[in-house]
């Protein structure tokens, strides 16, 4: 078994506090807004210049001029503000966000992140990922454990161009939760229901330590 994307988003949402300023990346991270615990309201920021972004609009209510950084139509919560991208990036670079939650193509055991380009594949641009991983005090990655070809996405070293070095604090995959710490490196904290340690070792290239409950072992997956 494995966690669904909604369950992955709920795990990330559980550590967000009421009133936090948060940037949610494209893909699975956008689901966090619908998985927040009762009584927790966060202020969503978008790199293109929105603070106080609301949920996605209902079909037929879309405003094509109101979009997030991923060019998805969005709504504004009461009290939201809109400003230019220069001010938005100053907000990010100044460390004013509490958390950034991003997707990933690869994460290394040291917390390096590659999430913006595959060489030879056309992309529209870098976006704000480099600024977010440099400016946000905490970075969480939500990603599938392996890619579409079954290759590990948690690696000893990233093979794709980097977004940032040693910037990821937590990785939540469909199979497990890992923390990346300065002292212990990559640490396995939680397994999805029905997933075994052997499965994680087979699907993970990165070296990791296992600290689940009272268990502590060293993992060196092949």
UniProtKB/TrEMBL annotation:
Highest taxon of the lineage: Bacteria
Record keywords, A-Z: Transferase
Pfam families: CoA_trans
Cross-referenced SMART domains: CoA_trans
Family per record: Belongs to the 3-oxoacid CoA-transferase subunit B family.
Organism annotation: Corynebacterium marambiense
InterPro entries: 3-oxoacid_CoA-transf_B (IPR012791), CoA_trans_fam_I (IPR004165), CoA_transf_AS (IPR004164), NagB/RpiA_transferase-like (IPR037171)
Name listed for the protein in its UniProt record: 3-oxoacid CoA-transferase subunit B
PROSITE patterns in the cross-refs: COA_TRANSF_2 (PS01274)
